Automatic annotation (TrEMBL):
Pfam families xref list: DJ-1_PfpI
Record NCBIfam families: not_thiJ
Domain (DJ-1/PfpI) ranges: 1-161
GO cellular component terms given for this protein: cytoplasm
Organism: Coprobacillus cateniformis
Name under which the protein is recorded: DJ-1 family protein
Length: 181
């Protein structure tokens, strides 16, 4: 299994790096792909070094992940390469995961129509073709969505499970169960 997380300036750290952390703990190859640069600065000024730049090899992954954060999510939506890979993954039934403001790219790609999704409150107005759910995470067919930073771990565990890897041991080791009390 291989996952890719797409990065643009202004990404949300928790949403992007929690996915990378959880998948790597589970020994799932997870690459951080810079869309424009090998060093990308988050919405809160954290500089992160990418594993590689986006190229055609991204299409070989099993899941593509879009973090939220502003202006990162808007920049991803404006990048035709992002829209193209979303359409390709959707056509092939591959997993697509987007959190917080990230699902706005799903709308632009035309792949969320009549599908249930969640997102950061207020962004559902930018996704009129989907069916908004007021939930922490949401799965509809091959699309996984998450609400926002507080949902980052559950979102990451959901991706892991959909890739066929149990999240039980990792979530216990990370003491996730204490959040559920």
């Amino acid at each position: 299994m291989k996952a890719i997380v797409l990065f643009k300036e202004g990404f949300e750290e928790l949403e992007a790096l929690s996915v990378v952390d959880v998948l790597r703990r589970a020994d799932v190859k997870c690459d951080m792909l810079g869309m424009d640069s090998m060093e990308v600065i988050s919405s809160h000024g954290v500089k992160v070094t990418m594993d590689c730049l986006f190229d055609e090899s991204a299409y070989e992954a099993d899941v593509v992940v879009l973090p939220g954060g502003m202006p990162g999510a808007s920049s991803l939506r404006s990048d035709q390469r992002v829209i193209d890979i979303l359409k390709d993954f959707n056509q092939k039934g591959k997993w697509i995961a987007a959190i917080c403001a990230g699902p706005i790219s799903l709308e632009k790609a035309g792949i969320i129509e009549n599908k249930q999704f969640t997102c950061y409150p207020g962004f559902e107005n930018e996704i009129p073709s989907g069916i908004y759910q007021d939930s922490f995470t949401c799965i509809d067919q091959n699309i996984i969505t998450g609400r926002g930073p507080a949902a980052a771990l559950e979102f990451a565990y959901t991706i892991l499970e959909k890739l066929g890897v149990s999240s039980t041991n990792i979530s216990q080791a990370m003491q996730y169960h204490y959040l559920k009390k």
